[in-house]
Design goal:
With 160 residues, the chain is mainly α. It has six helices and two strands.
């Protein structure tokens, strides 16, 4: 595995200076958990969780027309995704349909009830995200997104 950092730069973490509470893994996990909690608090009255919202939105945006595609974009395993889709289907928010061109493929679509729910959820999600970014300037939000994308790029290119 090659190091894509500047050869003159020192590594941010060493065995001697590593502290879990200060690691980017721990901090990003804490941020994700707290954002999810803030969203859950705002959307629970609709009988849906943050995880269900994320899957419903991906299907609505046509980024998850199959369970396999959803697993790739959410990082969820197939067993968990199947249970999530079962719950969304029980709530009549999505439906599964066999592909007419390939019977092995089950396509996912948002139902009318799911489409009707999305406009109620989006403002609540936006509210939670804005809470997380309270007191951040536009430039800081832009920089934060840029830095997070760089981390994602580094991890996607980890084999380079």
């Amino acid at each position: 595995m090659s190091d894509i950092r500047d050869p003159g730069a020192s590594a941010p973490y060493t065995v001697d200076n590593y502290s879990q509470d200060e690691s980017i893994g721990f901090l990003t996990h804490q941020v994700k958990m707290r954002i999810s909690q803030a969203i859950d608090e705002r959307i629970n009255e609709f009988g849906i969780t943050t995880a269900q919202w994320a899957v419903l939105k991906q299907i609505a945006m046509h980024n998850g027309e199959t369970a396999t595609a959803l697993c790739k974009c959410t990082g969820c395993d197939t067993g968990s995704m199947t249970r999530m889709l079962d719950r969304l289907e029980e709530k009549d928010l999505i439906r599964r349909e066999r592909s007419t061109t390939d019977r092995r493929v089950v396509q996912l679509q948002v139902t009318e009830n799911g489409q009707a729910l999305l406009p109620d959820l989006v403002p609540r999600v936006v509210e939670a995200l804005n809470l997380a970014l309270k007191d951040f300037s536009d430039a800081e939000v832009s920089q934060l997104k840029h830095l997070l994308r760089r981390i994602l790029d580094n991890l996607e290119r980890r084999g380079d």
